[in-house]
Amino acid sequence: MTDQSEPGQEPRARRAPRAAAASIKGTARVRMPAAQRREQLIAIGRQLFAERGFDATSIEEVAARAKVSKPVVYEHFGGKEGLYAVVVDREVRALLDRITGALTAGDPRELLEQAALALLDYIDQEPHGFQVLVRESPVLSPGGNFSSVMNDVAHQVEHILAAEFKARELDPKFAELYSQALVGMVALVGQWWREARKPKKEMVAAHLVNLAWNGLSHLEAKPALTTRSR
Fold first, then answer.
1. Of 36, 149, 208, 216, which has the fewest CB atoms closer than 10 Å, so is most exposed?
2. What total of structural domains would you count in the chain?
């Protein structure tokens, strides 16, 4: 069969293998830089741990979603426990930074509003991250978990309440108790709102502050139970 190429052009028979090689080269998988691959694996692990929990998540599925072999995941994290620890540590720091930042400026009521909204914003904007934190896991992350974050926040609130108690001639030694009560209330309501999603988070925060602030505004100096004799 005679080659029908135009004058001055390379014969089609020679061009075809080169075209095929170029096509293969164009579709070859580009090797991802190590730092980028690590971030990809963390993001995939975060989603899987949120959806299924630690026990039901496997390295095989992490690798499959990332389209890499299992040794790549082991190379970066040493195993499922290592990946989980990194994910949890990041979420702990992210949530703590949000709430700590909200407690830096303002009067006591404003600080309460800002802290409540900071938690609700995190739940709203980072549902996978929050789900990872509140899920129970047999693996203890060095960074802690949701409870440890709330304890850290309670310690910060304690200092704020202690100063306020002194100014109002209330016993500051009970500031720790009240800080745990306030933070616990906000944390539990936040977990409830994660599922309910009603009313809007601004209204949830407003009602939390309404209960907490009006309760703090009318504290008795020496409260006592009325249903039990002393």
1. 36
2. 1
